[in-house]
Amino acid sequence: MTRLRIFSHRLLGLFLRRKLERELEEEIRSHLDMQIEDNLRQGMSLEDAWRAARLKFGGVDQVKEAYRDKSRLGWIESLWQDLCYGVRMLLKKPGFTAVAVITLALGIGANAVIFSVVNTALLRPLPFDDPDRLIMIRETKLPEFTDFSVGPATFLDWKNQNTVFERLVAMTDASLNLIGAGDPERLRGMRVTDGFFAMLGARPQIGRDFLPEEDRAGRNSVVILSHGLWQKRFGGDPGVVNRAITLSGRSYTVIGVAPATFRFVDSDAEFWTPMAFTAEQAQQRGRYLRAVGRLKQGVTLEQARSEMSAIADRLAKQYPSITGWNVKLTPLLEYTVQDVKMPLLLLLGAVVFVLLIACVNVANLLLARSAAREKEIAIRASLGAGRARIARQLLTESLLLALSGGAAGLLMVAGWGMDLLLSLAPEGLPRLSDVSLDGRALAFTSTLTLLTGLGFGLFPALQASRPNLNETLKDAGRAATDDRRRRFIRSSLVVAEISLALVLLVGAGLLVETFLLLRRVSPGFNPVGALAAGISLPQRKYPEDDQQAAFYARLIERVAALPGVQAAGAVSVLPLSGGSFIDSFEIEGRPPYPAGEEPTADYYSATPGYFKAMGIPLLRGRLFAERDATGAPRIVIINETMAKRFFPGEDPVGKRLHVGGGPAIYREIVGIVGDVKQHGLDQETTAQIYEPHAQRPFPSMALIARSSGAPANLSAAIRGEVLMIDKEQPVSSVETVEQFLSASIAQQRFSALVFGIFGAVAMALACVGIFGVLSYWVAQRRHEIGVRMALGAGRHDVLRLVVGQGMKLVLWGLGLGLVGALVLTRFLTRFLKTLLFGVSPTDSLTFALIAVLLTAVALLACWIPAWRATKVDPLIAIKYE
């Protein structure tokens, strides 16, 4: 046993010694290589350079003896040597290094920026306790309403009958006027039911949470302030707790301040108050609440869906008015990002394409550089350097390029690129304010950098590590070697660049065309010269309908008298604002519809001057007049779509409608106006009903003033007129109608702009690749071009030769790119249809225009090297060779 142990130890020692000798041999050869290269740069011949290196180091045996004691640190020193040599070689070619680093910085930096947005919006958990158990609960009624709010009575039934939710809360947006703490200000907030903060795991920074008994009518005059409002209006004073403040004419006691980081998904609430349903509200099923629940431990989403669906079926049988309505459960994070998930993923795919093109470009540069270093690599091989050693050295240089590009991408592109992207992003992008380069984004960027270095460096390194010593060390060998080994590879890489660029450009073209088509869609009104201002009267100060009607009538009269104002009016919901009131209706003389199947229309309360101020045309009948006041015959105006849909082949003027529930009060249709886009320029126009504000007053209205001059100049004057009527009444969200029309297509503008930028970068990189390949091809064939010109070839012949060589690659790339774009767009058709408007994902015109554009730019990239080739002097070229 002892002899066996001794024998095994000797065998292991022999193996380690032989391994060390091999490593030392490799290191010695590397030192000799470096010394020989230095001697060659000093002008020595190959034989003299070899002899001088041997004399400096002595014999190989002496060198081995000198390094015999270096054992465990051999591989570390070898790696350090590779790194130092790689840095030296990159610094020797600053132009090549700068181009490669900038190219990689664009690709890696763009990916870092977009991944940070995707990570924040889609991957990062919501900042609440156990966010995976938070579920958004909505009502659906297919096919009209796929995702809708819920009424108070239905919510209370859900809360009382379910057994799957630990907590179930409802909320709705609220706006209140803050007075008595500086200038009056309109605040955005939320009314919430009991348990809202507890469900989210949030605790006030100072003060306390709502108590269960404060969720009752008469005991809900308490408020929690946001951290921002606390700092802005109360100077961060901790003494604000238990202080009384006045909101919309009602006294509220401040009981707490929310944490600085607290924000409920897409809400910018500045305060929270208890919902506190009255007995009457608890019986209403009008849908205006959002419901969120926290699943109990161990309950799955499918179990919750099954139980809530059963509850919905029971309620439909019990209350015929909600027949056909079902319940929809969606994880809160998924619900928050559902509208932007696909655009962001497509955007991430676009920057991956840009990175691939960048990698192909750098791989082409490395192939060209390895061709220029063939003699150096051949000398290394002739001195005994193995293929793995040469490949490792070249791959080290590639990784150094990738690391430099990654660092530059993070410091430069990701720095200002993040600010640029956030400045371009629409306001509706979820969690936009939380976007940052966190640990996950940095890990992604680091991994991407390493993979990029391997991706573009591995193939050139493997190709260069197999030199043909006999051919390379001959004077005529280089051109032949390049033609055999690299020409096809470099051409293939250019074809790949063109293909990838075309696919990305087609996607950008489709989105740009969508945006341009949306801009041509008529919104149904004239936005030029109009200003919109939001006003909301406090219910406690203006409890009566007559008071509300009188306030707006007086305000509109004063605004209409301002210098430069051509018309003034008000409406309950602005077009394209994203909100709407939807009411059911019945037509007099027609059979009633079955319960739950009544037709619906967007409902508006409007003043007489609204249609003129907004520029909505009258098609038939008359508009509202001052005589259409309280006590006058009830009337309505409908839009053209409603007239065609519900009164085909007949004149609706003079017909009567019953709008909404309650007593059967019929209103006569006195006019038909043009269609207005309420829910978006890319959405179908809905049926619309307008009723005089005096006959059905609303406390919250949007004032519209049309000016002969710049509408923005009316802002201060309108605020002043409001304060002249009521010094405690604020004005909110003052903006031109053109501004909110532009905001309605902000998402499409953002997608078109960002995809267009990436498409342009991809096209530029692809054309740089063509330019580089042709420039190298001209340099390699300079002797041939000189001979051709000496034998009588004209400049046009040379131009045609070089351009033809480049355009062959372009046409191959266009063909493959068109096929790839068709396959990809067909595969993504279901998703692209949600992003496109008026254009098919396989639109032939877009494909053709993009192909022509890319061909034209590529032709320019081909023409420049061709033009240089025509300047070759035949005598100099032949003599040089």
Q: Regions with pLDDT < 50 over 5+ consecutive residues?
A: 12-17, 62-73, 475-481
Strand content: 15-25%
* Global geometry: elongated
Global Rg: 37 Å
Helix share, percent: 40-55%
List how many beta strands DSSP finds: 22
| Spatial ordering of strands, largest sheet | 3-4-9-6-8-7
Class from helix and strand fractions: alpha+beta
Please give the largest β-sheet. Answer: 6 strands, mixed, barrel
Q: What would the average pLDDT be, to the nearest integer?
A: 82
Distance N terminus to C terminus? 73 Å
Count of helix runs: 28
Based on the model shown, name its key terms.
881 residues; alpha+beta; six-stranded mixed barrel; 28 helices; 15% strand
Topology of this protein?
Elements: H1 2-41, H2 46-57, H3 60-66, H4 74-92, H5 94-123, E1 134-141, E2 145-148, H6 152-161, E3 165-179, E4 185-192, H7 196-200, E5 206-207, E6 222-225, H8 227-234, E7 244-247, E8 250-257, E9 271-274, E10 290-295, H9 301-318, E11 326-331, H10 332-337, H11 341-372, H12 374-382, H13 387-424, H14 439-464, H15 469-472, H16 477-485, H17 487-520, E12 530-536, H18 545-560, E13 565-571, E14 581-587, E15 600-606, H19 610-614, E16 618-621, E17 635-639, H20 640-646, E18 656-659, E19 666-673, E20 688-692, E21 700-707, H21 715-725, E22 732-736, H22 737-743, H23 746-780, H24 782-790, H25 795-827, H26 829-832, H27 844-869, H28 874-880
Helix pairs in contact: 1-2, 4-13, 5-11, 5-13, 5-14, 6-9, 11-14, 11-17, 11-23, 13-14, 17-23, 17-25, 17-27, 18-21, 23-25, 23-27, 24-28, 25-27
